[in-house]
Amino acid sequence: MRYGLVLASATLLITLNVPLDVFAESFATLTVKVEDVSNRGGNVRVALYDRASWPNDDAKPVIDGVVPAQTGETIVTVRDVPPGTYGLKAFQDYNRNGEFDTTWLGLPAEKYGFSNDARVVFSEPDFDAAKFTLSPGANTITIHLK
């Protein structure tokens, strides 16, 4: 039964001459310009979270991206993201261990940043300070590492 429904839907779309890129437009592409990247190298890691997963340090992000760090500005692009409201966390992973490292006092040992350049006061900002809307199609945000 399902196969027949899928085949009928595909036939209808072809008959109506609906371009396939219409469906690609229902997703978003996010380009993140990460500024103030250190010359210490490593990777720049970005992760997109929704409201429910934001406060949970062990939560899996909606989507993430990792690229080699480029001194000054590094650009990270993630594709095929459902449009919605998100917060972005980023850090420069100097030693490429995939983890945000801290000192023995619990202070950051690597540069970090959040969408909207949300301020850190004793702990990461709340979701409302970092949230932004991701629309279908191309989107760009800039964050500054601290």
Describe the protein's architecture and organization:
It contains three helices and eight strands, in the order H-H-E-E-E-E-E-E-H-E-E. The chain is an alpha+beta fold. It has a single domain, classed as Immunoglobulins (Immunoglobulin-like, Sandwich), CATH 2.60.40. The strands form two sheets. Strands 2, 3, 5, 6 and 7 form a five-stranded antiparallel sheet that branches. It is globular and about 45 Å long. The N terminus is likely disordered.
Feature tags:
5-stranded antiparallel sheet, Immunoglobulin-like, globular, 146 residues, alpha+beta, disordered N terminus, 3 helices, single chain, 8 strands, 3-stranded mixed sheet
Low-confidence stretches: 1-16, 18-22
- The CATH level-2 architecture is identified as Sandwich
Report the radius of gyration as a whole number of Å. Answer: 19 Å
| Count of spatially separate domains | 1
- Mean pLDDT, to the nearest integer, reads 88
Question: What sort of overall outline do the alpha carbons produce when their principal axes are compared?
Answer: globular
Percent of residues in β-strands: 35-45%
According to CATH, the fold-level topology is Immunoglobulin-like
Largest sheet: 5 strands, antiparallel
Task: State the share of residues found in helices, binned by percent.
Answer: 10-25%
* String of helices and strands: HHEEEEEEHEE
What is the number of E strands?
8
Classification by helices and strands: alpha+beta
- Highest-level CATH class: Mainly Beta
Number of helices: 3
